[in-house]
Design a protein that fits this description.
Rossmann fold; four-stranded antiparallel sheet; 9 helices
Length: 338
């Protein structure tokens, strides 16, 4: 079996070559011992006679041999074949197609949530999108009518941007739950995904639209689309919009609110989904967590290891050092003996 040394993302494919480094001290000792035989010795009667003779050339020649030792070390490392490696994760996902149908009627600005129902619903929906990296998801908005804000997409950032920019007042006021559900079904009916679901978020009773909610639910059931309904808001007196100003803002006042839980349970039950009631942001968070656990995407991961040889960098540096040593030794640092 081949021996390898690994450090972070680097590896030595042939580390046994590093044993040559053990010979380096012997070579250095042999070289230092033979210096005296390679140079002419000049005897003088007193050391004072040589004071001031040393120049930068003398000091430089004492260190020039270090270039050769460094080059030898780099060549040995190159023989050990240093490599940079990384791992690529290949993912095969049996993804789920999900359409979020969100109510944007004026009542979604009611202040029993902080700051209001719509803001809480947007925050939780954006977080839900960010936690499902492999699924295709889209967004439908409805009030008195319905329209597609974002078709099915894998681009999480784009979808989250659409969710964060949701505003009321883009459609006639009202709550057309059937139209919102039907528009979502339109995007899912031709989907090749084995699992297709709609998250329907509303706070009111169906009071507009050309298609009834239960009729839309029956269509979803026939197409094998499951609907999770989320009723958001508390029953009773809530500070809610009662009129709209000329500049588009709303006047708020205490108002009796109600939610048609029977209708939402009927939609979910028809399509083999589940009805949830959210009276607070914590409830919403728990609901999304439960839906995530129920609708799990099947993911198969495989790891591919790739590597790149780096020995040539060490050889290039070693070659440059050897050339530099030769140029210095036979150039400005050359010593002529007589």
């Amino acid at each position: 079996m081949q021996l390898q040394i690994t450090l972070n993302s680097y590896i030595l494919a042939e580390p046994l070559w590093l044993l040559l480094l053990l010979l380096l001290p012997l070579l250095m000792y042999w070289y230092r011992k033979g210096i005296g035989r390679r140079h002419v010795t000049l005897q003088v009667s007193r050391m004072q006679a040589m004071k001031g003779v040393k120049t930068w050339v003398v000091y430089a020649r004492n260190w020039i041999q270090a270039l050769r030792w460094i080059a030898i070390v780099l060549i040995i490392i190159a023989l050990a074949r240093p490599q940079q490696f990384w791992r690529e994760e290949q993912i095969e996902a049996d993804a789920i197609d999900i359409m979020i149908a969100m109510d944007i009627s004026a009542s979604m600005l009611s202040r029993d949530f902080r700051p209001d129902r719509l803001s809480a619903a947007k925050e939780m929906a954006a977080g839900f999108v960010g936690r499902r990296p492999y699924d295709r998801m889209g967004l439908v908005l409805f009030s008195g009518g319905a329209f597609t804000q974002c078709p099915l997409t894998n681009d999480r950032r784009v979808l989250q941007a659409f969710i964060n920019n949701i505003q009321t007042g883009r459609l006639p006021d009202g709550t057309a739950i059937g139209m919102g559900l039907a528009t979502s079904i339109q995007h899912l009916k031709d989907s090749p995904s084995k699992s297709r679901i709609v998250l329907l978020i509303t706070d009111g009773e169906n009071n507009s639209g050309e298609l009834g909610p239960l009729t839309a639910a029956a269509i979803a059931k026939a197409l094998g689309i499951r609907v999770y309904t989320i009723g958001i808001g508390t029953d009773g007196v809530v500070e809610s919009p009662v009129s709209q100003n000329m500049d588009g803002s709303y006047q708020f006042a205490p108002r009796q609110m109600s939610l048609d839980t029977g209708l939402l349970k009927g939609i979910a039950g028809t399509t083999h989904g589940i009805f949830y009631r959210a009276r607070s942001s914590d409830d919403l968070r728990a609901i999304y967590s439960e839906i995530e656990s129920l609708e799990k995407t099947k993911v198969v991961r495989s790891t591919v290891r790739r590597s790149t040889d780096m020995f040539f960098w060490f050889l290039n540096v070693a070659f440059c050092l050897l050339v530099l040593e030769l140029l210095l030794r036979w150039g400005p640092l050359r010593v002529i003996t007589v």
